[in-house]
């Protein structure tokens, strides 16, 4: 007998599993389909984010920074720590434990909320029927009143550097090195490339990042990007812009990479090479030809502002649709779609999705950049505050970076908050909360911030927008 559900979700990543849980909480009979299996061959929920993305990379970033701090940063505190070493296997093992705990936690949440897990590959057929094909090749058809497509994304492969997961790896393989490579190449100076490059650079690798674009972090505010380039270069990352990889040759346990830059043809040899040039949506065998769901010209599932596809009752969320490929964006879309299916008028503010790069210092922003606003012809006032002037940052020996607040010159409404520095992601989230409620720079300046905290830097930057900062010299108005 065919199983029938109110909602069937294909994919159990941060978009899919959240959508499934929310739908079940709203009283809808819900199933979620997932095929990903861990190294032990067991179904693992949580998608790229929990298994081979956000969570494991942060575990390695934190471990590697603690090692770096113990080796390089303790002395200033009067702490002598000689002979500090890193056990890479133990570090990776800790990462694996965290992943296992979290993916297991999603399974527990499914059970607690009454979500039915269907193991296998999900494929949308006509009339909102979904085919579920198990690992054994057997298939069953389930019927749904509503379907949510949340199949996620996978790393982009490039012909000049084919991944073998031994010498040339993608972002997944870079999480499982069992030793620190002496020479590490990274293709791509985006979020993933910089984060993974930082991990292994802290542990002693000589890291070279090859970026095809001539501009560093083009999505970030130019002032913040410039500071990030300076800081990361100082940390030892050799970032080569305008470097287009043309080929590679693996010889034994090393790889020679050919690329062109402003100086012509170049080549470098590495012990490991990470390919991190972005991700593409997973739509392989997701849609039957008669499903009715359309893809756009870039291979993403076409949706409107409410994540509705071209088929009534079929939705798509997360990395498989337009917009930023961010876990929190996918999760929030999942919540909104579940609520709309349940009859609520939920919507999502795509203008205020925070972006974060978890290097140290962190780089984060929300809202618009200074260059974007100027291109739009918007008159703005800008306030900045350096962490070098923050008492809390000094106490933590973590004074690199600044907070930048951009406000409309006429209305004083905050249009962007950009941070490079300690706890940048948390400070930007404060800005996002304030901006969601239409804050002005004056509003932020009038609030009481506890002292001494890093968040005082946001307070001072907001004051600086209108030339009222207390703990840093204000710019003289022209």
Report on this structure.
The termini are far apart. The protein is 30% helix and 25% strand. Strands 1, 2, 3, 4, 5, 6 and 17 form a seven-stranded mixed β-sheet that branches. A five-stranded parallel β-sheet has the order 8-15-9-10-11, covered by helices on one side. The radius of gyration is 24 Å and the shape is globular. By secondary structure, it is α/β, with parallel strands linked by helices. The mean pLDDT is 97. It has three domains: 224 residues, FAD/NAD(P)-binding domain (3-Layer(bba) Sandwich), CATH 3.50.50.60; 110 residues, FAD/NAD(P)-binding domain; 105 residues, FAD/NAD-linked reductase, C-terminal dimerisation domain (Enolase-like, domain 1). Strand 4 and strand 5 form a beta hairpin.
Short description, anyone?
The chain is 30% helix and 25% strand. It is built from twelve helices and 22 strands.
Descriptive terms for the model:
478 residues, alpha/beta, FAD/NAD(P)-binding domain, Enolase-like, domain 1, 3 domains, 7-stranded mixed beta sheet, 5-stranded parallel beta sheet, 25% strand
Would you give the CATH topology of the largest domain?
FAD/NAD(P)-binding domain
Q: Name the average pLDDT.
A: 97
3D shape:
globular
> Low-confidence parts, pLDDT < 50 over ≥5 residues?
none
Total tally of structural domains = 3
């Amino acid at each position: 007998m065919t199983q029938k559900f109110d909602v069937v979700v294909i994919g159990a990543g941060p978009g899919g599993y959240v959508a499934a849980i929310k739908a079940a909480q709203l009283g809808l009979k819900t199933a979620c389909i997932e095929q990903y299996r861990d190294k032990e061959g067991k179904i693992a929920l949580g998608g790229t984010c929990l298994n081979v993305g956000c969570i494991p990379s942060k575990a390695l970033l934190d471990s590697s920074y603690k090692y770096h701090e113990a080796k390089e940063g303790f002395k200033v505190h009067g702490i002598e720590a000689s002979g500090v070493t890193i056990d890479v296997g133990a570090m990776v093992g800790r990462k694996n434990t965290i992943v296992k705990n979290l993916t297991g936690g999603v399974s527990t949440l499914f059970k607690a909320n009454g979500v039915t897990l269907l193991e296998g590959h999900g494929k949308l057929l006509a009339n909102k029927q979904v085919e579920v094909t198990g690992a054994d090749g057997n298939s069953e058809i389930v019927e749904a009143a509503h379907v949510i497509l949340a199949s996620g994304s996978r790393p982009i492969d490039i012909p000049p550097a084919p991944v073998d997961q031994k010498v040339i790896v993608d972002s997944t393989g870079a999480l499982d090195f069992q030793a620190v490579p002496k020479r590490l190449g990274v293709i791509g100076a985006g979020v993933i490339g910089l984060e993974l490059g930082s991990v292994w650079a802290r542990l002693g690798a000589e890291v070279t990042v090859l970026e095809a674009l001539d501009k560093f972090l083009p999505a970030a505010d130019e002032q913040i990007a410039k500071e990030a380039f300076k800081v990361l270069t100082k940390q030892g990352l050799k970032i080569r812009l305008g470097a287009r990889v043309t080929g590679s040759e693996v010889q034994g346990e090393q790889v020679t990479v050919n690329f062109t830059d402003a100086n012509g043809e170049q080549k470098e040899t590495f012990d490991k090479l990470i390919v991190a040039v972005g991700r593409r949506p997973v739509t392989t065998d997701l849609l039957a030809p008669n499903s009715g769901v359309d893809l756009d010209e870039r291979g993403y599932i076409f949706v409107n502002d409410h994540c509705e596809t071209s088929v009534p009752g079929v939705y798509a969320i997360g990395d498989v649709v337009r917009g930023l490929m961010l876990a929190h964006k996918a999760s929030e879309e999942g919540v909104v779609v579940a609520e709309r299916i349940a009859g609520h008028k939920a919507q999502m503010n795509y203008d205020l999705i925070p972006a974060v790069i978890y290097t140290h210092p962190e780089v984060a922003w929300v809202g618009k950049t200074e260059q974007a606003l100027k291109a739009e012809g918007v008159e703005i006032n800008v306030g900045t505050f350096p962490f070098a002037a923050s008492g809390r940052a000094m106490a933590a020996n973590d004074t690199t970076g600044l907070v930048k607040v951009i406000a409309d010159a006429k209305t004083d409404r905050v249009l962007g908050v950009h941070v490079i520095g300690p706890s940048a992601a948390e400070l930007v989230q404060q800005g996002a909360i304030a901006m969601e409620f239409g804050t002005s720079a004056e509003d932020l300046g009038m609030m009481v911030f506890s002292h001494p905290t890093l968040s005082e830097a946001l307070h001072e930057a907001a004051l600086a927008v209108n030339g009222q900062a207390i703990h840093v010299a204000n710019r003289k108005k022209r």
